[in-house]
Q: What sequence folds into this?
């Protein structure tokens, strides 16, 4: 399905939603204004005169509903363009393999090698490499996290619809899901009815950490490592050359609402997301790492660590019985239990407490 067909599908689906959830009149108004806008862009002078008049003649309620319809429409069109842009990049990378595509990390490293950058100079560059992506409470991003999540799910449906191997029933299911998501998007308030608190802005920033950066940054790191290995064998990029930081909830410049308690709550929210994502990763790894201790004996240090942790928490002890002889699964399950326990701690109170607290992990243990 090409871009034009995707845009047509989204417009048709939104039109169905407008007719079903609002009125035929709203749909016809939106279509009339859209047709005038297209004609004006094509150079028709009559449309250039009629378009502002058509908008000015709308009653307040109709104008508000029409503006909302166009806002949803443009969000959907942006998603379609993004999905097809990603598809085009993937197709180009596939066609050029193993030659890296333009403007990629792989091309940059290959270009540096071709320009005569030595391994010694590259090692210096890697030592100096430091990129920090900083999140701010951007005033132009007014969408609620609920709306962002719906747009993300619609984007996923559009990506699945590009699959040439879809069965007819699978396509039908995807189209039904698309209709449901666009209906829910239309019926959802796009902006908050009250002024967002600083912690709301923090949660919006963390939405992007969770939905984008958490999985993307490791892939970017792996891409650099692969390019360095290919062109400069023996060199290794620094472990944390690309990081994410945030001013939201900690920047006191001009925002009197950012007080000590708000910053403590911000740190709690950041910590909570990190713990939860690590816990899920550890649990997933525990399900995968079903290595038998008989076939692959664990290191003595791991056995000693497990012995030192006894008695085990009840759930971990149950897993030890269920998956007997699988020490790696046991160790990971224990780490997941530790993370679960840590998520229940009153971190805000600890941060606001002036008394010092002992470190959970010492430098020697690291």
A:
């Amino acid at each position: 399905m090409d871009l034009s067909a995707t845009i047509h599908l989204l417009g048709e689906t939104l039109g169905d939603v407008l007719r079903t959830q609002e009125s035929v009149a709203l749909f016809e108004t939106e279509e009339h204004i859209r047709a005038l806008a297209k004609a004006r862009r094509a150079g028709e002078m009559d449309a250039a005169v009629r378009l502002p008049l058509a908008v000015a003649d709308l009653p307040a309620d109709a104008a508000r509903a029409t503006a909302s319809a166009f806002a949803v429409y443009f969000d959907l069109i942006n998603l379609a363009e993004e999905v097809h842009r990603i598809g085009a990049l993937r197709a180009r990378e596939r066609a050029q393999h193993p030659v890296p595509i333009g403007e990629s990390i792989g091309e940059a490293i290959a270009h540096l090698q071709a320009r005569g950058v030595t391994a010694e100079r590259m090692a210096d560059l890697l030592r100096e490499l430091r990129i920090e992506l900083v999140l701010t409470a951007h005033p132009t991003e007014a969408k609620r996290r609920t709306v962002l999540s719906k747009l993300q799910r619609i984007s996923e449906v559009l990506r699945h619809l590009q699959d040439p191997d879809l069965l007819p029933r699978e396509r039908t299911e995807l189209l039904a899901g698309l209709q449901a998501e666009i209906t829910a998007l239309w019926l959802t308030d796009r902006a908050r009815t009250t002024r967002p608190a600083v912690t709301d802005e923090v949660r919006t920033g963390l939405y992007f950490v969770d939905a984008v950066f958490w999985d993307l940054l490791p892939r970017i790191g792996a891409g650099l490592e692969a390019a360095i290995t290919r062109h400069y064998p023996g060199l290794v990029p620094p472990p944390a050359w690309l990081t994410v930081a945030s001013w939201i909830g900690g920047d006191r410049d001009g925002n009197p609402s950012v007080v000590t308690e708000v910053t403590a709550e911000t740190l709690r929210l950041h910590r909570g997301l990190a713990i939860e994502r690590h816990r899920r990763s550890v649990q997933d790894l525990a399900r995968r790492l079903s290595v038998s201790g008989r076939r692959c004996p664990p290191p003595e240090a791991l056995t000693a660590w497990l012995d030192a942790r006894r008695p085990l928490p009840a759930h971990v002890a149950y897993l030890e019985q269920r998956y007997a002889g699988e020490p790696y699964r046991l160790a990971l399950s224990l780490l997941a239990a530790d993370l679960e326990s840590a998520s229940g701690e009153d971190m805000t109170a600890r941060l606001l407490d002036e008394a010092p607290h002992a470190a959970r992990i010492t430098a020697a243990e690291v």
Q: What stands out?
A: The longest strand covers residues 131-135.
